[in-house]
Design a protein that fits this description.
Layout: H1 2-20, E1 27-28, H2 31-34, E2 39-49, H3 52-66, E3 70-77, E4 84-92
Parallel strand pairs: 1-3
Antiparallel strand pairs: 2-4, 3-4
Pfam family, one: YdgH_BhsA-like
Domain YdgH/BhsA/McbA-like: 39-93
InterPro entries: Dodecin-like, YdgH-like_sf, YdgH/BhsA/McbA-like_dom
């Protein structure tokens, strides 16, 4: 029991510190702001379960991996009567 009391705070601090110190995800921008930016590529997702917010979050994660700080969502939809989301976004510095 004493080991658990000591280990538990260490485990929680490791979990929370990674969330606190994580880099912010790329910011969403509109098409008028995108026109003045330099594109570094595009990202896409498909088969994302959940809501449109979940699909946007996946796009932001991919944009971050590409090195982007901003992204403009070009398309976001659920094809047919599917509950799975797909989307495309342009990534900017």
């Amino acid at each position: 029991m004493k080991r658990l009391t000591i280990a538990l705070p260490i485990i929680f601090s490791a979990l929370f510190s990674s969330a606190v110190f994580a880099a912010p995800l790329p910011k969403l921008i509109d098409s008028s702001s995108a026109n003045s930016q330099v594109s570094i590529g595009s990202v896409s997702v498909s088969g994302v379960r959940g809501s449109s917010d979940d699909a946007v979050h996946k796009l932001q994660q991919k944009a971050e991996q590409l090195g982007g700080s901003q992204l403009h969502i070009v398309a976001l939809n659920t094809p047919g009567d599917s509950s799975l989301w797909m989307g495309n976004a342009e990534v900017y510095r």
